Amino acid sequence: MARSPRTPDPGRRPIPAAIAVVIRAQHVLLVRRANPPDAGRWGFPGGKIDFGESIEQAAQRELLEETGVRGEARQVFTAVDAFDHALSGELRQHFLLVAVLCRYLGGEPAGGDDALDAQWFPLDALDASDLALSHDVARVAREGARLARTPGAITPGGSRPP
């Protein structure tokens, strides 16, 4: 039976990936993505989970590789779908991004690995229309900030980012 170009192969599965949500002094750490999905857009540092690696380990590793920032994984708190479509509309990749709230330990953000840039953004600026964010970044950042402020949850570290 022939498939439409929009119908994914039933043998394919979403690719699990971890994203690091780092909140520091009412700012969130984001990277400008170099690769699909969402190349050129701002999103959380993250990437595929390696075989034998925990979600938390993957989040910490990707955070360091993409930003030079060290963090401590504290809590898995949500998941987001990320779809990479060809111009034809065909689904090329489907990632399942597992968000991990991380406590800032140190380091100055700089784009590395497959991130073009890394910067701290004020949480209240995430809804600006001129900021090219990946899908659900503002919502996930606000949820992470709320968890970071919750008694018994992690405490954001450090002072106001530069």
UniProtKB/TrEMBL annotation:
Gene label: mutT
Taxonomic classification: Bacteria, Pseudomonadati, Pseudomonadota, Betaproteobacteria, Burkholderiales
Names of required cofactors: Mg(2+)
Keyword annotations from UniProtKB, A to Z: Hydrolase
Alphabetical list of Pfam families matching this protein: NUDIX
Source species of the chain: Bordetella ansorpii
Signal peptide: none
Coiled-coil ranges from the UniProt annotation: none
The family this protein is said to belong to: Belongs to the Nudix hydrolase family.
GO molecular function, one term: 8-oxo-7,8-dihydrodeoxyguanosine triphosphate pyrophosphatase activity
Family matches, as Gene3D superfamilies: Nucleoside Triphosphate Pyrophosphohydrolase
EC id: 3.6.1.55
Residues that span the membrane, as ranges: none
The name this protein goes by in its record: NUDIX hydrolase
Keyword Hydrolase (UniProt): yes
UniProt keyword Hydrolase, yes or no: yes
Residue ranges occupied by any Nudix hydrolase domain in the UniProt entry: 13-145
